[in-house]
Write a structure and sequence with these properties.
The chain has 16 helices and 14 strands. The protein is of the alpha/beta class. The relative contact order is 0.08.
Length: 497
């Protein structure tokens, strides 16, 4: 369970937009000009519409701030009457909270229900109890196992009771509009209008709709105002302080939508989507909904913050260890390249990394290009006669990429990510293939999901871009581990170029 993320604090309105904010915590936005070229003022809401009361009262408060500490304290509570097991219950509390965090149970929920949460909650709590009990069993403390398990049943009861209390507190805050998150609807069709009506009728969902964006005014105007087009979304999010985007139906272009909801201005917003065939989506297992309408939460790519720091720490550890363990292989490759082609063991080439920054990518030389321009603009050299036997082995086994471990230590690359490309081809492919440039939201990788999926060499660039963006949208340490394991298979079986 858990409420939506705290409302974004007051931000300076973007140029071309104005807002009048009261000095009270229950701020109400008054008037905004219409979309850029409109040249006339249009009220943010109909005269008879309910003002967005309470949307700033949440401040930085988030439901997990109540739920997580309560879970931790109640799980460890039995140590109060069983002090000799305090270490066991402290461990139980830490393991349980970690499992719940990993399962996303502290993420935002629209429909709050203890009964909906109960199966997952009990499952994780029982797993945590089993892990701690296993330690007793390994120590052959049979009496300790029995006493701990029986005492931990109190933790189960307390945690469930605590969830009932915290759910009630969050729901009360929403119903009284103490906590309501400013929301922009994307799409102005009939479905979007229905969603707006439901959110206005039932404040228990904690969303306050400011209006909608679409290519043109639609049926939803009967419920909420039209704020502009998708091109205005960045400005609206900044001016309104919106922290939720809810995608319904409308006349907008879906390809354009993908770009607009992944900009820096909208990145911090929760992204919710009502499925197109929502009548069938009730059988998909999604428990979140607004009324009878199922709602999917689109995962926000973990590009910054703790996730990025964790990935960087893993990069440093893996690349350092690999350089140490593979140093004999590294030296053997360097010696073979030197014998076959003479001086100049490393091949240095400018590639494009995160946010379009250029860096010097290192590889073992497999051939010597006639000119620098040839290396920068020639697409494939796999069948080039100048590639000698050593070069072919290095390329087939991907051992020519080993020097990029140095790039990783420098912070120019990561272990797993989209493969870096040369500036000439980045410009070409960005112009030809939609969302190709989105690959550069993360650092370039030594290996990547596209490469272990067979998309290397002369394979469609559009397919590579789609797989790379899929990796970014769904990144996790487990996904990185899967790519690394598949990379080992690729190298051992010499499935390279």
């Amino acid at each position: 369970m858990g409420g939506l993320r705290g409302t974004v604090g007051a931000r300076r309105p973007a140029p071309g937009w104005t807002s009048v904010r009261s000095t009270s915590r229950s701020t109400v936005l008054r008037d905004l000009p219409g979309p850029r070229a409109a040249g006339r003022e249009r009220p943010l809401a109909r005269p008879d519409a309910r003002p967005l009361l309470g949307v700033d009262r949440a401040g930085g408060l988030q439901a997990w701030m109540l739920v997580l500490p309560l879970d931790a304290v109640l799980t460890a509570a039995p140590m109060a009457w069983s002090p000799h097991y305090w270490k066991a219950f402290a461990a139980l509390s830490v393991i349980f909270v970690a499992l719940v965090c990993g399962g996303g149970r502290y993420r935002a929920r629209l429909h709050l229900s203890v009964l909906d949460e109960l199966p997952g909650l009990l499952g994780r709590l029982l797993v945590a109890i089993a892990l701690v009990a296993a330690v007793f069993a390994v120590r052959h403390d049979n009496v300790g196992v029995t006493e701990f398990v029986l005492t931990s049943l109190a933790s189960v009861a307390l945690v469930v009771a605590g969830r009932a209390v915290s759910t009630g507190v969050v729901l009360t805050g929403r119903r009284r509009r103490i906590v309501a998150h400013r929301t922009v609807l994307v799409g102005g069709g009939d479905l979007s209008g229905e969603v707006a009506a439901l959110l206005d009728r039932y404040p228990r969902y904690g969303l306050a709709v400011a209006g909608y964006v679409d290519s043109a005014p639609g049926p939803a105007s009967a419920r909420v105002p039209w704020l502009g087009t998708l091109d205005d979304l960045d400005d609206l999010v900044a001016a309104l302080g919106a922290d939720v985007l809810l995608v319904g139906d409308g006349a907008f272009d879906e390809a354009d939508l993908l770009d607009r909801v992944r900009t820096p201005a909208t990145q911090a917003c929760d992204l919710l989507v009502v499925p197109r065939l929502h009548a069938f989506a009730t059988a998909t297992g999604h428990t979140d909904h607004i009324g009878s309408l199922p709602v999917m939460r689109i995962r926000t790519p973990a590009l910054d913050g703790p996730a990025r720091a964790l990935k960087r720490a893993v990069d440093v550890a893996v690349s350092s260890l690999a350089l140490l363990v593979l140093s004999p292989v590294f030296l053997a490759c360097a010696l073979a390249v030197r014998i076959e082609g003479g001086p100049g063991i490393l091949f240095r080439q400018i590639r494009v990394g995160r946010d379009g920054r250029r860096f010097e990518c290192l590889k073992f030389r497999s051939m010597r290009p006639a000119t620098t321009a040839e290396g920068d603009t020639q697409w494939s050299i796999a069948q080039d006669d100048r590639v000698g036997p050593v070069g072919r082995v290095l390329r087939a086994t991907s051992l020519d990429e080993l020097p990029q471990l140095v790039n990783i230590l420098r912070g120019e690359m990561t272990v797993v990510g989209p493969r870096p490309e040369r500036p000439h081809f980045v410009e070409q492919f960005s112009a030809e293939h939609p969302r190709y440039g989105h690959r550069h939201r993360v650092p370039a990788g030594l290996t990547g999901l596209a490469q272990v999926s067979g998309l290397r060499g002369d394979t469609p660039i559009s397919d590579r871009a789609r797989v790379d963006n899929y990796y970014i949208e769904n990144w996790s340490l487990w996904l990185d581990l899967k790519v690394l394991l598949r990379t080992v298979s690729e190298v051992l079986l010499a499935k390279g170029r």
